[in-house]
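debug: dumping io for the single-chain case to check the tokenizer round-trip. Nothing else runs in this session.
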Amino acid sequence: MLVQYAIQYIKRALRYNYRIKPTVDQEVKLVEFGSYARGLWNLLLSENIRRYRYDKSFLFYPEMAGLIRDLKKSDEFSWLKFFDSAASQQVARDLETALKKLLCHP
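debug: decoded output
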């Protein structure tokens, strides 16, 4: 039992740090990707805040994914079309995780 605990602890304690050195073009893409992710996070978070103030409910992943799909069709949020769909779904999952942690540990 103690050996298993020690092995699990060591696995969690070990980590590797990598330094990437992107080219200028790659750096531009990384900044663009981060901007899209942050913009979508803020958009979904503001919608959750609005809904919570209105009826004390939250949007979770299925509703957020549907909202993203609908927003991609609008002209105002056309920038979402340039953001990878898998990455946008991951943003929604990450926000859902953050909301659930908030609800469990206010």
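debug: round-trip ok. The chain has a mean pLDDT of 88.
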